[in-house]
Amino acid sequence: MSGHFRIVMLAAATCATGLYAPPPAAAQSAATVRKTTADIVIRIQRADYEGDRAALQRLHDELTPLAARSDDRHLTSRVRYWQGFALWRRALNGFNDAATPSEIERDLQLAVGQFEKALELDASFVDSKLGIASCLGNMAALHSKDQARVQGLLPRIIQLTKESQAAAPENPRLFWVRGPQLWWIPADKGGGRPASVANYERGLEFARKQKGVKGDPLEPAWGEAELLMNLAWSHVNLAVPNPAAAEEYAKQALALVPHWRYVRDVLMPQIRAAREKKSPQS
Question: Is the pLDDT of residue 214 over 80?
Fold first, then answer.
């Protein structure tokens, strides 16, 4: 008996005795979806930092067929989250690229739709709630002169934020989303600029505690660099700006993400201008 024939006969005998069975097609599909999505997630985050809005749209579209290829509700919820994330960041980058308000709002609305689909599949998925809250907050900013529109958005923003605080009080992304809310809330109502800065600092502590903990690549783990960026922005926009602190935070953000176009090409020049403006008075 040839060696090849012996191997074939052994495989047949193993199948017959129930010791071997090929992996189910659904499991193979889920594994493929997971790996492909993980690869796309890396590209989405890089495109976000590079301010590549065209790539963010393209990568969102690449995830669309993957969302329909698995019966795993948890996995599909994460695919939907990253689709929402891509459009969310496409909108945020649009604020810096002079995109039209209608284009930004379109991306925000579509992002909310993806986050909502993620929540339908996993109602406990806090990061999707935070994504919706942030998108709605940015819609409110777009329509800041239309108070009726703003007031219509606020209840959902408040509800989602409270639910996220109760469910995941140490989630660094909660503090990143909460910061702009506090920035614009009057001090006598628990907000104000110093409160926003303190919030970012607290979030940064949690982000650094979680740093280095390896987990599922499809689970959101971003936050440290983003909190550093917001601290830099905040310190240069305080009533009494602190350009030195702003520059230190911006440098720390760039140390983590050297290719972050907004921090490198937009925020750092603003910080330097603030420092030069303050210098003669020092």
Answer: no
The C-alpha atoms of residue 68 and residue 66 are separated, in whole angstroms, by 5
At 133, list the tokens. 């809250």
Q: Is residue 22's pLDDT more than 70?
A: no
Sign for the pseudo-dihedral over CA of 103, 68, 130, 205: negative
pLDDT tens, residue by residue, 87-122: 999 999 999 898 999 999 999 999 999 999 999 999
Q: Which CATH code for domain 170-276? A: 1.25.40
pLDDT at 281: 52
**Would the CATH topology of 35-168 be identical to that of 170-276?**
yes
Number of CB atoms found within 10 A of residue 171's CB: 21
What CATH fold (topology level) applies to the domain 35-168?
A: 1.25.40
Question: How far is it, in rounded angstroms, from Cα 124 to Cα 64?
Answer: 22
For the chain, domain boundaries: 35-168, 170-276
